[in-house]
Amino acid sequence: MMSRTMAEAQLPKRVDAGKLVDSNQQFTAYIDSANLERLNDAVVRCDEPIHCQMVFERGTDRKRVLTGSFHTNVVMCCQRCLGDVTIPLQGEYKLGFVLNDEQAKALPRQLEPVELDEDGKLDLWSTIEDEVLLSLPNFPMHPESECQIMQPEPEPEYTDSDVNRVNPFDVLAKLKQK
Ligand SMILES: [Zn+2]
Fold this sequence. Notes:
alpha+beta; five-stranded mixed β-sheet; 6 helices; 7 strands; elongated; binds zinc ion; ribosomal protein; ribonucleoprotein
């Protein structure tokens, strides 16, 4: 609908990469994360859209390039307490469009190759999904102060000097009572 601004629009799934480069197209848009099956499989929950910014342009050597960034939040399983933890994700990428492996090898090193299909079309959703998946932490964890397993059992408070005076035999006696 024409009345929607670009900021509200969902990114198109499949785009003509060459055409977007030629018109130097720029997007600020989102992808509904419900559309990203691999991402949903990799996390506990992903309720937020993936917010994307991207620019299609000619890079050095007239290479066709997509430069962009994304950000979102996902819920993952904390590797310390196994509770839910919200992980902010963000990333930047610089992709060079290629049609085959040969072209991929010939790309300058700072460009990550992304293959277009035989019609020159790019699957934008799965391209961004790849980037989001790459940004997932291997060991998602709460900050220590928020991690449930780090919160000690409620116990009477000891000062340092109290701790020093604890008799190890008292501790053993208490254990035996359990
Ligand atoms: Zn935790």
